[in-house]
Design a protein that fits this description.
Layout: E1 26-28, E2 52-54, H1 61-64, E3 74-77, E4 79-80, E5 86-92, E6 97-107, E7 116-123, E8 129-135, E9 145-149, E10 155-163, E11 166-173, H2 175-183, E12 186-192, E13 198-204, H3 208-213, H4 219-247
Parallel strand pairs: 3-13
Antiparallel strand pairs: 1-2, 4-6, 5-6, 6-7, 7-8, 8-11, 9-10, 9-12, 10-11, 12-13
Biased composition (Basic and acidic residues): 227-248
Biased composition (Low complexity): 34-73
Protein name: Invasion protein IalB, involved in pathogenesis
Length: 265
């Protein structure tokens, strides 16, 4: 089986839309499968976009569309959705090279659907590594993105391709950048939303260096983790569907009609 570069990288990001003004983003239910792509370019993720729902503490999109003026830069602090970083290795048959990537998903809260995914690719024998991100839809693509470790010098990256459930973006880096990631505390990712406001996502880097330099995960263990995660996400989606159904008015029991007005004498 060909080694897929995107396998295991942020499978559950879906339909996240950045809003204008003070709105950070609206978050959607997970897609059915994880995205996968060959080495040359990412293919469309095998995912079905779901109806977007506002993240906890964020107004819905309709509120943001009511003429709110841009309010300047916005920072969104994200938390890991998994217990640790995952390192996956395999052979990319197209390039005939051994490739490893170290990845993790992040969200506003640990029990919510991912908003951003980070993967750092290391191709055996190559001095250049790739920092690849899966970011929400609804961003301005032409400016690309900037990323920095703690208070370090920002580096630039470009969007590669977008799908209904997210956009892939990447930047080629050298060894010193990898060293910064290993030693750093926070990674910042700056993008611009639909109205031109800068939004900076921050994600913790604790444990990245150990995972990057350590052994890869056993493929069977990874498969079991993915199955468990998928089952959990499906359960959350079903619970949310039931909650929304229960909140709907009971169409089968309409409210009683108002009594007729008494006849005039």
């Amino acid at each position: 089986m060909p080694f897929s570069l995107k396998r295991g990288v942020a499978a559950v990001l879906a339909g996240v839309v950045l809003l204008g003004g003070g709105e950070a983003f609206a978050q959607a239910a997970p897609p059915a499968k994880k995205p996968a792509a060959p080495a040359a370019a990412p293919k469309a993720p095998a995912a079905q976009p779901a109806q977007a729902q506002p993240a906890q503490g964020q107004p819905a999109q309709g509120d943001a569309a009511q003429g709110q003026a841009p309010q300047g830069p916005l920072r969104v602090d994200l938390q890991p959705t998994q217990n640790d970083w995952t390192k996956v290795c395999g052979k990319d048959q197209a390039a005939n090279k051994e490739i490893c990537y170290t990845t993790r998903d992040f969200s506003a809260q640990a029990d919510q659907q991912p908003v951003l995914a980070l993967a750092v690719y290391d191709v055996k024998g190559d001095d250049t590594r790739v920092v690849r991100l899966l970011l929400p839809v609804g961003l301005m693509l032409r400016p690309g993105f900037r990323f920095f470790v703690d208070k370090g010098q920002p580096q630039e990256g470009a969007f590669e391709i977008c799908f209904p459930n997210g956009c892939f973006a990447e930047s080629k880096v050298k060894g010193p950048t990898i060293d910064e990631l290993k030693k750093g505390t926070l990674l910042g990712v700056a993008v611009k939303n639909q109205v031109g406001n800068q939004i900076t996502f921050t994600v913790p880097l604790a444990g990245f260096g150990k995972a990057f330099d350590g052994p890869p995960i056993d493929p069977k263990v990874l498969e079991e983790q993915q199955k468990k995660l998928q089952a959990e996400l499906q359960k959350r989606a079903e619970d949310e569907r039931k909650r929304l159904e229960a909140a709907k008015p009971d169409a089968a029991n309409p409210a009683p009609a108002a009594p007729a007005a008494p006849a005039k004498p």
